[in-house]
Structure prediction request, 1038 residues.
Amino acid sequence: MRMKILASVGLVVLTTMALAPARPPMAGGTVTGKVTYTGTPPKMKPIDMAKEPSCAKEHATPVMNESVVTGPGNALGDVVVYISAGGAAGAPPAQGVTFDQKGCQYIPHVLAMQAGQQLEIRNDDQTSHNIHPMSKVNPEWNKSQPPGAPPIQVKYEKPEFIPVKCNVHPWMHGYFAVLNTSHSAVTGADGSFSLTGLPPGKYTVTAWQERFGTQSQEVTITGNETAKLDFVLKATEY
Amino acid sequence: MSRVARRIASVAGLGVACVAIAAAGVRAQGHNGLPPEGQGSDRKIIKNVGRPSVGKEEYIRYCVGCHGDHGDGVGENTQWIDPKPRDFTLAVFKCRSTPSGTLPTDQDLMNTIRRGIVHSNMPEWRPLPDQMIADILSYIKTFSPRWKAEQPGTPVEVPAETPVTTESILAGRAMFQKFECWKCHGPEGRGNGPSASGMTDSKDQPITPYDFTTSDRFKCGTSNADLYRIFMTGLDGTPMASFSDNIKGDAGWDLVHYLRTLQPMKTPEATIWKAWLATHAGELKPIGPDATGQ
Amino acid sequence: MRLTKGMCGAQWLTISALVVGASLGAATTAAATVTRHSDSTIVVQRAATDGNAARDAYRAYVASIQNNEPAAMASYATKRVKLIPAFARKYGLRCSACHTAWPELNSFGQQFRDNGYQLKNERDSPIYQNNSYIPITLRATPQFHAERATKQLVDATPGDGASGQAERTVSSHGFDLSGIDLWTAGTLWKNVSFVLLMSADNEGSFGFEAMHVRFDNLGNSSWLNLKVGKFELDNLISEKRFLFLSDNGGSYATYHFSAPGSSVDFGIGDNQIGAELSGHSLNSYTRYSAAVLTSTDGEPGGENFSSYDANLNVSQAFDGGKMGVERIAAYAYLGQRPTTYQTIDGEEVPGTGSNRKTFYRAGVAGDFFLHKLEFLPFYLHGNDNAYLASDTPPDSPLLPGARDASWNGGFLETHYYISPQLVLTQRVEAIRMSQQAFSDLPNKLGNVDAYSFGTRWYPFMYSRAGLAVHGEYSLVKTVSPAQTAEEGSTVNIWTSSLLFALDFDF
Prediction:
């Protein structure tokens, strides 16, 4: 089960990295590192999908709540690491990002995108979902998406961390991380991230986890080097 | 004419006027004592230009006790009210004719103010003149910057209503099953579906799905056209989603006709449905999981 | 505060306006005002606040004219005024949502009242309120006031009852209490509403001012509502919910006027007992009411049982655009009083009256807004049948020379709402007899002119309780029978009130 999650999360991470903006192929600097936690994180509980049999049968063992995803060596997954200050934002990438509803879960749990980047929302389940991103800065909307319906295409214009929920299936939680930059990554369960293609300059790198808050560090890129940056977030039980 | 006779005549005239007014009034009302569909102040187009400074005084007179000095829904009475008053700073509104996520039109806002919201503390502000409502609206818009940045959405198109027939009601019933309305609203529309308990709105306040079986008013209107708009635009800020991507044109009327059969009052739809059920009830499959709702 | 007589009206009014702003004078003994009875009987002038104080005061006035005794400080003070913070507490609305300046209703408050004190959002029935919510409200008005009356008959030499009588201006002033209104109203059930209003005078003696049940929205239609009990007539300009409180300004003279010598004890501002069918459009722009009332002017168990009056009222409002809501109304009250009774040992048996003679009051009224300025014009034509106007004794033939008494009266009241918490008020009123009961009565006997100015300031305006700081000056001129031949047949008696009050309501 864990492997399945790791595999799918890893797949998403790779996909995200592959979807990095098509820039002129200059090397640029790289910031890479690992996000770990100290303290005791809360225990994640299994999700009871009995109310939606068509989804329950897709999971041999119940899926766990994804608010806190941990890995070996106190690694922290599903952390959005991004450039929060420094450098020009640039136009949003032409390639869009995809948010999938599968097995009554949001895949990925946290999706990072740039403001103005195309977002596609799919329903690959046998049941209807209603996709309800609870934005406060961007317009809040709520749409029903039955099985077999075409994907919903939408763009968010303002940076915001938006919780996403489905009103029909209350256990479904996800996040849209709408950022001012295309330089972002979401860590996998191994906690590692890599921000590439950074022009020389002084940057603030921020790590955000939905329960443990944010942490920022500064880094300076002078050429094509790889800067190493680690984040240690303080885990809280509640 | 003698004085007494003149007196009697003028009094009789007043009496006749009373009776005439009463009779005309009773006849003019649509079902349930509310303006007939398509008529009444709900449909008047608001043409007045609002004056925010005047609207501010009127807001303080009428609205501030619930909606608060800053328009954020935190008035002196908010702690005792359920559902909570609208937070105007978010510019998210339940009752619109425009798509989910877009701003409502002035007419939408005027309709909400005039007809109030059932099962809430929002009164029917019917006697307020159009100009006063326009003034209040222009002041309310100062609470959120969205009104400066965007225009209201393009109202959802509501086609002419299709005839009420058994086929239409059955098609609507199939839609009720297919689009899983019953998951929240329950198989009989009682608001007790499997997903209904523990529901919260966008401000994390507990909320329950609409119970069709207890009321003749919806949150956002009373007519078939109002009901059509409700599921096409969704009720922003609540779990009620917009179905406009998946229900198109005349198909929406089928769902409207079916929903009417769930309500307690006598409607043309309910009459036709009851008559059909009397002989064909056995043909129906129940609504719910593992059912086709045919 | 000694007020010299003989000042002309205008000067007096200017000075009093300054006095309103001045600090309070020293307190003296409570006002014990003196009537102009030649037999030296004292009539209490402090306005009682039972339901028919106005009528009682007028009866005293009528009796005094009947006995050819010039009227005294006719004080028609009615301080029954209706504002219900219990409603504000129930629904969370501020007082200003329903009232222009409480207790006067605005157009939304009128709709709320017409709906049977319901917002009609399916939460009006008491079951939707917390168990501890009790719809009780009370209102009281501690105050300072000064009263003055000209041409009062007092001993020429104070202390010497044998010194003959002289006309003097009599005045008195001091701190005082009003009565209280203890009022409960609301819904018994969805679409069944009730009112119970106990009113006490300033000594705590209670009476029932209002008590009724109303079946609202019969047949789910706002056009049919049935009210039974004791209630205010459906006057467009409500005297119970107006903005004046002083002895001389706290009632509309036109609403209580009785022709000199008439036996009709009726005031259109008095609460009556009966049944009323009423209706209104959903926004209360169109309204009608038709009532059948027992002919006792609101007195329960009265001597005029078995006789009924009727009241009709229609009104229409218009959307006045930038100006506000504009209303006009027409009304008619048709009354009758018996003139023949069964008797036992010469004493009338109450309730056995027959051979009824009629009287009526009819006219038009309006309520017009010019943004913050509100005009309330009112016109009334009154007529009492000759039997009643001449007070012919029961079971007797019509007194020789008796005629119908008729008159025209009206007022124009103005309010200026500086804000929902500050209002300036003014009223000018006049009544002119057009035909006296007897041709040898002076034509202008009984004519009234009245002027009032006032202000109300509400230091706070929210949804739990209310306080109004009230200032008012009112002046009334009544044409009364003269005492001495030199004065001619009539004399003008001026009575005035200056009031500074704290009017609170919880």
Notes: Chain A has two helices and 19 strands. Chain A touches chain B through 24 residues (CB under 8 Å).
